Amino acid sequence: MLDSGFVNDYIDSHLDKRQVNKIQHGFPSPRYWSELSVPMDEIAEDRHRARKMNPRSVVNLYVGVPYCIRTNPGKCGYCLFPVEEFQGNAALENYYTYVEREADLYREQMSDAILGAVYFGGGTSNLYRPEVYHKLMDLVRGLFPTIYPQADLTLEGIPQLFSREKMTAIRDAGMNRISMGVQQVNERLNRLSGRQQTTRHVTNALEWARELGLAANVDIIFGWPQQTTSSMLADLETLVSWGVYDITHYELNVGGPTDFALNRFHELPSTLSNLEMYRASRDFLTDQGYEQVTAYNFRKPGDPAARPYEEGVMHGFSTMDTLGLGYAAITFFGDPKLGDGHAWSFINWHNLQRYKDSLDNGEFPVERGFRHTMVDWRLSMLFRNIFSLEVSRPDYRDAFDIDVYDEFATIWDALAERGYAQVEHDRIRLVGDGPFYTPMIQTLLAEERYQALREREVSRSKKPKPRVLA
Ligand SMILES: C[S@@+](CC[C@H](N)C(=O)[O-])C[C@H]1O[C@@H](n2cnc3c(N)ncnc32)[C@H](O)[C@@H]1O
Ligand code: SF4
Questions:
Q1: Which domains can be identified in the chain, with CATH numbers?
Q2: Does 455 or 186 have the greater pLDDT score?
Q3: Chain-centre distance of CA 42, in angstroms?
Q4: 223 lines ligand 2 (CB under 6 A)
Q5: Is 72 exposed, middle or buried (0-12, 13-18, 19+ CB in 10 A)?
């Protein structure tokens, strides 16, 4: 266990530092996924074994698109996701034939699975022409014999690429939700990203979604260059006045060779201003009747188009099975009942040509992965529960035979002292500014294991390479 002096110093020295890591949905960070040979046959067998033990567990599906329309500055000025410039519909639809081929490779493995949710993301998934959406849903239905009745079937896109015709095709194909990246409602601020989006694009898309009975989520970002708390609140007020039930409010993650990091760093609000914005947005949205469901998701009850929110989908420790299809897609798989070393994270090629070449060779297009020990798996599940703001102590004990308070007592105590966490007999909850500091809390929880992984990486890099004899 970390010494409480170290924990307190760490927290004190990080409170006013920009949180360079964003919230992680699993452990460890993909930086540590260095296994180049991922045993797909073993993973398939393990999945069947896990489902036999836990027949009600669900699989979430993610399907990615590499392409986005060109912006000036590139990549919307801030985006850190791997994406490629849109090359036209022929290239996009050719790419999609590869996704279908990848899905074929998983058909047997998914034959006894229940689909819990689908997310068509990216990149920009509403680049597809209207006639393609039914193919996307055919792929889903072909791969999963059983679909959970309350499943969210979501397609993500940008406002200016939605049209009534496209939205109708999305609904007719069987999807039931859209997620729209708006980023800034304020047109002047939004233009800093080079996106050609107007308020009209956003209101039209929301109107069509409502008419067609599709649930709609809006992503926006705070901590944007030149943004103030009052411009942020003006955007939130507008979204509330438009009747948006589902708002994702991300803090800007600044990094890499992006325009915002290189050329607008001096225009960014400070970390403490971001904290101020977080508090103001949370208080405003909760006053307006929204519930905070994760560190950055706010949902207003009563949406006629939404499916009931399932506790078990976000919380719990038994499984977090996610299948990622497509360019740079990420897959997680594991079940604590399988024991040590049977959980995996892996990522597909983020080089489009390599992705296609693997499939042309009849191989899974996996670039690299990470085999989790039970400690890694436990941290992954803890990260996920922390993200949705609370950890159940009895559930954690049932899954791992250890009390989550005892395991990290010095960290919980330090967080509780500062009003960031509340330790109760049956749960630990992030409160106050705790959710804002989720990345820092995750780093602390994982510090000891990260140290061991760093040492492993160093010793691997020092190993003499095998000599090649001429
Ligand atoms: C990967 S993008 C794809 C969605 C779509 N292409 C778009 O731009 O709206 C998904 C969401 O991630 C968020 N995002 C992307 N880059 C980000 C960053 N650097 N910091 C915070 N959020 C970011 C945006 O809110 C975006 O809507
Ligand atoms: S923010 Fe969205 S549209 Fe912009 S580059 Fe990233 S994924 Fe593409």
A1: 4-22+318-457 (1.10.10.920), 58-313 (3.20.20.70)
A2: 186
A3: 26
A4: no
A5: exposed
